[in-house]
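can u pls check wat happens w/ L-homoserine
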Amino acid sequence: MKNRQVNIGIIGLGTVGTGVARILLEQKELLTTRSTLSFNLKTIAELDWNKDRNLDLSQVNCTTDVDELLNDPEINIVVETIGGYEPAFTFISKALKNRKHVVTANKALIATKGMELYKIAQENGVDFLFEASVGGGIPIIKGLREGLVANRFESIYGILNGTTNYILTKMHRDGLEFDEALKGAQEKGFAEANPTLDISGGDAAHKLTILSSIASNSFIPFDKIYMEGITGITKMDITFAQSFGMTIKLLAIYRAYKDGLDLRVHPTLINNSHLLAAVSNELNAIFVKGDFVGDTMFYGPGAGERPTASAIISDIVDLSRDLLLQEGEKYCNRAISLTQNVQLIPIEDVTSRFYLRFMTKDIPGVLSMISGVLAENGISISSMVQLESHEKDNYVPIVLLTHEALEKSMERALQKIVKFDFVKEDYLRLRIFEES
Ligand code: HSE
């Protein structure tokens, strides 16, 4: 680093990359005041230069050739904002091997290939930071790694996906249909290039993998996280939830028990009195309980150009301070330690209260048959609602709320209930959130 100038290269000028460039150009003085360093956006590699991004890039080397950036010895920090697995993995590995620090928001890549990339970073004496990968602009990773470093984490739960929260908010508040609400999230730039990742719970599970690995100091395999998405939720379920004084949210949950970690992502009914019920649109919120600090809440914009770029810049400034330290000093690694081995508790062994919605024929005996199967499996009903039939085919919704039950008992009961010929196959089972 010459004259305290940090040279930065950005790969990908999409929503997030544009935000990073904007901050580097528009907040230059502020960043210097706060860090005593000068940040120079040297090169941007992007394939599509026709799009108008409302940026003055006259002082920036704009190229379509990523190697120009990766092989430039003057570039200290590479920001990867193309997302996805490839070519992002290849570009990041190459940058690390060329001894450049890397900053990314690529949660899918970190959740699945994070260990590999860390190894490459360590072997090459550089660092790899990803604050923007979870919670957009919320400093949750720094919160866990730095602010709450003194704590063992008992629970972490919250809303980690802006797109699904936006969709559910619009369904709750404006009565929108799922598809219409998803379109809105896509137009606003919250959704992934492939929105299936959002609505299947995959994006939230990527983020939970990252937070859980940091919180437990162990490498959590992404494919071991139980996940369910929000595609089965209809306007009818929203109306039922509202009638029970609850809101449906896609929650990511981490709970540490003596015998292991309970990790899952699924739509959840949450009491309207809980602060999470009021977290709307693309906003994210994460509750963290540490053994010394107690309960904390992190809240803010979980997606979008400016918040995500804000988090990326915080990593750039951190790394730049390390660059100063490194001058004449030994490599100072801030990589998290993932040395512990933890057990994951299988979903079958978790207990929850449940919301069950069946579409059944309106004929005598239906309720007693369903409640009989639940009782056989040790599941007790706490409330029940049945609506009158307005459909020609005479199917009516029956909604049951249960007391706490084991997942495997519920699964056994559901397998049996859907075999009744008076029950339609597309039932909905949601968990009801309870504070641990
Ligand atoms: N698709 C993601 C979301 C973007 O909706 O939360 C931010 O990670």
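Residues 140-300 form a domain with the Dihydrodipicolinate Reductase; domain 2 fold (CATH 3.30.360.10).
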